[in-house]
Design a protein that fits this description.
The complex is a heterodimer of chains A (336) and B (311). Chain A is mainly α and 336 residues long. Helices cover 67% and strands 0% of the residues of chain A. Chain B has one domain: MetI-like fold. Classes of the chains: A mainly alpha (336), B mainly alpha (311).
Amino acid sequence: MATRELTPAPAGLSVMRPPRQGSASWPLVDRAGYWLCWATGVALCLITVAIVVFMLVKGISYLRPSLFVTSPAPSLQQSKAGGFFDPIVGTLIVTAVGTLIAAPVGVALAAWLSEYGRPSRLARAVESAIEIIAGTPSVVLAIFGLLVFSQSFLGFLSETASDGAVTGQSFLTVGVIMALLALPLIVAAAREGLSQVPDRMREASYALGKTRARTIRRVLLPAIRPSIAEGVVLGMGRIIGDTAIVIILLQLSVTKNEPVGSVPVLNILRGTGSTLTSYVFYNSPAGEGNAHQKAYAAAFVLLMIVLALNFAVIRITGGRDRAESRRRRLLRWLRP
Amino acid sequence: MLGALGAATLVLIAAMVVTVFIKAWPSFSANGLRWFGPGGDVDAQLRAMAEGTPLPSHSALYFRAWPLIWGTIITTVPAVLIALAISTLAAIFLTEFAPAPVRRTLEPVIRLLAGVPSVVYGLIGILALAPLINDHLISEARRKSVARVVQLEGADLMLAILILAVMITPIMVALIAGALASVPVSWKEGSAALGVNRWRTIVRVSLRTARPAIVAATVLASARALGEAIMLAMVSGGRGFAANPLDGVTFLFEPVRPLAATIAQEAGGLTIGPLSHTLYAIAAVLLVSAALLSFAGWAAKQPLRRYGIRA
């Protein structure tokens, strides 16, 4: 058996690839460990399948086409409480605002950190600052946002009550805080991409007389487009799934999205409303709506969006990865 | 110009830490270090602040957070330990034993498990699992034995720990698998050449080399578990009750109320003076703990650099 283990394996694979029946000669304890590994692997798959199938069954049995086109309405009767048209629109708005802010800022920060990194003290400090955002619980980010955006000089972002108090609650403010949530993912993905661009590409560009800034814009950024796209999609997933920021920076109750002011588009952004996550929370036993069937239906839609984003990432990263870099990707996807 | 953007990010983070602390200060200064200690019913204290009627013979900011801190500890620590065991085995499976087709299924599965929004986990927990626990696992005798202190209703510590463990497992699998995969093949070959079988090689060489990364993964996952608010607000029972491990099995069925979940549950009262100071104080504690854990995770990984391993 030992000789079989040492036969060279195909390139890129570990030499330790198992002969399938390999564990037969091992001591009992070692074999138990081997089977325990298999058992946990299978168990993880089973848990995921159970979650997806459970939500599928609940979702399909409670989902009605009318839920997608009617607005939520305050009513004690479930049949009159409307659907989740506004929450879906809300999710789209929040995701769009958050991504539009986080993507350019994230890519610019990544380019600066990887390509310039000077003054290096500042760069180190910014790196750790991004780490701190990545580790900050979203509920803390949310109440920090509430504190900042209820300052009177930022009143134009949200609604000002008649007594001059600024609510700080609007789709814009949610979007800005959501951007903080997505930022570390986008920065990490873009930096990983930049680190894989070979130096000869930069040198070739310099040799042609391009400045560093133009090299970044014309050579490096196009080269890492898939990495950026991946980071952005990961960030979108994080934004869509977050509840704490929405229930604190939009309202806790779920009604129609309420515009503020009269300027088109801006009035919706300045207004409050709900998203799918806050709709689920509101209609769960933890919230006030307490309409289980609608919570299941909305949660099912949410899960399907997350699944779709998952497939999008698989499409973007494509089959062009070797095993090694695939593992790195798995790691990046799950950066805490 | 890009440097200015970096500086702006830095200023923003500094402002976040500073403003949260300024807003939290009245609560800390009114209670002193006893803020962290036990003392009375924390639910009643929060309710009194929300209603603006201070408890008799206490100041408006009177607050003793111990039941909430204890609730955070007894949900986070067991969940992280369970996740540590599961994810170490799963990571070994993923990097060493899984045949290629199995690995190709397992990786997206783990990603999906990480991507499920916490509100969906919470919904499944409170609507599907809590009634199961309530109907089948909690006996009437057990319910009666603690009825004078607390009601057992299915949304409890056990559920919180289990779901939290499922939620943080994917992160830990990814971090540990990344470290195991970057252990130099020649080290494992050396062990195999000495006639050591694959399992022992994994335990004695790979796991031992990756140990700093495993510690780091554990610490980072604790930071994530610490900050989980929505799922815990839904399934933990939401009762500021310092569950007592000496209660034996009943302990698992007792409701808890972790720190982050409290902020989410009391979010409606963020405009009320004393309550908002208290909630920002909780946020400040979470912020500092999360930052310390991030730093500890970074520090724990440093020994790997010595081996020239990037993980």
